[in-house]
Design goal:
The protein has 232 residues and is mainly beta. It is built from two helices and 14 strands; from the N terminus they run αβαβββββββββββββ. The N and C termini lie far apart (57 Å).
């Protein structure tokens, strides 16, 4: 009984700690032609957290979250503000920075150092119907119909669709838009998966969203709009 109550109280604590009254902002260095990255490097008054990859070939405690110092030359994978994060903590993460195409998948585990048996295991995968051009001519594909990015949680048998959309090709090849997995890992320290996702319906830009783990509802994540990138 006490364990159940403690678990419930812990869930409430995370909920109130990370429920947002202020806007979350994320900036990926050099993302887009008018990147805010240059402005932030010159503005000492902006308070951001930097998410740094420290161990490229390790799969646990390989990212460091610390207060961003614009006098240092080390470039983070991304900057974030608007979350109550702890300074100088290591966490498990993966810099993916690409789109999954139908049939592709990524298994990922968020490790619990205190209790490895309680580590959380996830499976990210994409599905959809690839429609080819009528005569197999360049650019070979017309579109991906009903593209869907899905996350499965092995531990609690929960599944959530992150994005569902049609993706159209353009004459020079490739697709005008897409769903880009930038980063996955434990951002807020609750031993559950969080994700930074970019979504685009046009080649000239994308919107960024943070999917934070959700201990209250039946869904795995709660989504927050956190910015975007423009290449036009």
């Amino acid at each position: 009984m006490n364990i159940t109550i403690n678990t419930f109280l812990l869930s409430l604590l995370f909920y109130y700690s990370y429920s947002q009254t202020s806007k979350i902002t994320v900036i990926i260095p050099d993302c887009g032609v008018d990147s805010q990255w240059k402005e932030i490097k010159a503005d000492v008054n902006e308070a951001y957290w930097g998410v740094y990859e420290k161990k490229k070939y390790h799969n646990r405690d390989n990212f460091l979250i610390k207060k961003y110092d614009n006098t240092k030359s080390t470039i983070p994978k991304f900057l974030i503000k608007g979350l109550n994060l702890k300074d100088s903590i290591f966490t498990t993460g993966k810099w993916v920075n690409r789109m999954l195409y139908p049939g592709e998948s990524i298994p990922f585990s968020v490790y619990s150092i205190e209790d490895e048996q309680n580590s959380k295991n996830y499976f990210l995968y994409a599905k959809g119907n690839i429609i080819e051009t009528e005569k197999g001519e360049f650019p070979y594909f017309k579109k991906i119909k009903n593209y869907e990015l899905v996350v499965d949680s092995y531990n609690d048998k929960t599944r959530q669709t992150i994005r569902k959309m049609d993706l159209f090709s353009f004459p020079s090849g490739g697709f005008e838009g897409g769903v880009f997995i930038h980063w996955i890992g434990d951002l807020n320290g609750d031993k559950l998966l969080d994700m930074l996702i970019g979504t685009s319906e046009h080649y000239a830009g994308s919107t960024l969203s943070i999917f934070l783990s959700n201990n209250i509802s039946k869904e795995l994540f709660k989504e927050y709009d956190v910015g975007g990138c423009s290449w036009d």
